[in-house]
Amino acid sequence: MLMAHPTVLKSLIEQYETLLLHSEEGSAEARRRVEDVIYTLCVSTGTRDIDTALATARRQLSGTGCEAGAEDSFALAH
Q1: 29 falls within a domain
Q2: Contacts of residue 76, Cβ cutoff 8 Å, sequence gap at least 6
Q3: pLDDT at position 78, please?
Q4: Is the pLDDT higher at 14 or at 26?
Q5: Is residue 69 part of a domain?
Q6: pLDDT over threshold 50, residue 76
Q7: Is residue 53 part of a domain?
């Protein structure tokens, strides 16, 4: 199974958390950006909801090491 690169997952989680704090302002643009990040996290983790996507991304991040060749199984698309 192709997995998102750990750097991409970290970035998506950080974007989600940051946007969530600022989306309380309620602007349509902020809500759209949150939805975009949610969608991308779900696609990147092969899940269908944000809670599962976050849990899966965090589990993947905790299980990724720097062993030789480990990066070969990651997708670099963002």
Answers
A1: yes
A2: 5, 8
A3: 45
A4: 14
A5: no
A6: no
A7: yes
Q: Which two structure tokens, joined as six digits, stand for 40?
A: 């991308």
Average pLDDT over residues 11-22: 92
- Inside any domain, residue 30: yes
Backbone angles phi, psi at 65, to 5 degrees: -110, -175
Total residue length of the chain: 78
What pLDDT sits at residue 33? 92
Task: Return the higher-pLDDT residue of 31 and 67.
Answer: 31
Q: Tokens at residue 56, please? A: 């899966």
Distance of CA 16 to the CA centre of its chain: 8
Query: What region does 15 belong to: left with phi over 0, alpha with psi -120 to 50, or beta?
Result: alpha
Domain containing 41 equals 3-62
**Residue 11 to residue 37: CA distance in whole angstroms:** 10
Count structural domains, the chain: 1
The pTM for the full model equals 0.76
